[in-house]
Structures are given as structure tokens and as C-alpha cells.
Amino acid sequence: MSALAQGELGGGPRNAAVSDDITSLYQEVVIDHARRPRNFHELEGASRTVEAVNPLCGDQLTLYLQMVDGAIADIAFKGNGCAISQASASLMTMAMKGLRHDEAVALFTRVHTMLTTESEGDGPPAEVGKLAVLSGVWEYPTRVKCATMAWQALRSALEDAGQRDGRSSQP
Fold first, then answer.
1. Taking Cα atoms as reference points, which of 84, 85, 83 lies closest to residue 62?
2. Cβ(143)–Cβ(121) under 8 Å?
3. What are phi and psi of 76, to 5 degrees?
4. Across-strand partners of 60?
5. From CA 146, how far away is CA 37, in angstroms rounded?
6. Distances (CA, A) of 153 to 8, 41, 93, 110, 147
7. d(CA 112, CA 108)
8. Per-residue pLDDT at 76
9. Residue 56: predicted pLDDT
10. What is the pLDDT of residue 165?
11. What is the pLDDT of residue 10?
């Protein structure tokens, strides 16, 4: 039986081959989103625009958010930065499109926790879906701000949207 199959079936100690395969896949996704970020454009008619800068490394981003009937109808970003900041912003825009305000705030909270604290289980929380590719960032304190910059901009935009709509965006 292959080492990968043994790891999948729970045979033997925690299998390094499975962990290496997952890490490799995560790295490929991050590199892909950094090189070809999705939703990387200005958004005409955005109802919210937030600028963010990471002074520690020079990453910068402008987030564009279009809210319609309490939901994220469209989201995009422009900016410059390291692979982690660009990939995180790209993945975030894909995950947020179509979410209602409260769903977006809840996902922000789950992802922010994942990015800033060690996972309590064997892996990232299931509730973050494909965003799990960013789950190891907390291990690199200098990269946490890179990965969270777009998310903090989103939180600001959502708080602004919640205040304008007369509701609190606190989780």
C-alpha cells in the first residue's frame, strides 16, 4: 500500500506524504492566485471603496464592493503586493461574491481566526472552504498582515454598509 493510501486510511503515524501533498497543493493555489488574481480590476459604480496599506512591507490595495439588497453583488480589487497579499485578496473576492451581509461578516470572522491563530484540530476549519489554502499563514507572523490586509479592508466596507443600512456588523 502506498504511503499516501496509508495516510488516507489512517495507517501508521501521521503521514508526512499526505501533509506534503496538501502543502504542495496549497502552494500551487496561492501561486496561481498571486500570478493571475481573480476580480483584479476597478469596479465601476462600487457602493463602497476602501484603501488599505501594509506599512511593514509596502503592500497596497483598493477594495471595491457593490452591495445590492443587503448582499455583495460584486467585489473587486486593485493593488500591488507580495504573493500572499494578492492571493488572499483574490481568494477573498471569489468567496464573498453573492454572500449576504451577515454571511460575509461571519466568513470574515472565521477566516480572520484561521489566519491569526493555530488550528485546534488536525487541519483548517471546514467552514472556510477553499480559503483553507491560507491556513498556515499564522505560523509566519510577518505574513499575517499580508494575508489579512484585504480582509480588514472588507471588514471596514461591511461595517460601513451595516451602519448605512441601520444594522450592526459585529459578529
1. 85
2. no
3. -155, 170
4. 53, 80
5. 15
6. 38, 16, 12, 16, 11
7. 6
8. 98
9. 86
10. 54
11. 36
Beta-bridge partner residues of 61: 52, 79
Cell numbers linked to 91: 481568494
How far is residue 18's CA from residue 3's CA, in Å, rounded to a whole number? 8
- List the 48-54 sheet strands across, edge first: 48-54, 59-68, 71-80
Q: With a cut of 70, which residues of the chain have pLDDT below it?
A: 1-19, 21-22, 122-124, 126, 162-171
**Rounded alpha-carbon distances, angstroms, from residue 46 to 40, 59, 114, 130, 165:** 14, 22, 28, 26, 16
Among 122, 136, 55, 131, which Cα is nearest to 87's? 131
Strands (E), the chain: 48-54, 59-68, 71-80
Q: Which phi and psi angles does 10 have, rounded to 5°?
A: 85, 10
Beta strand 59-68 with 48-54 is antiparallel
Q: How many helices (H) and strands (E) does the chain have?
A: 5, 3
Point out which residues pair with 76 in neighbouring strands: 64
Distance CA 62, CA 153 (A): 8
Inter-residue contact 77 to 150 (CB < 8 Å): yes
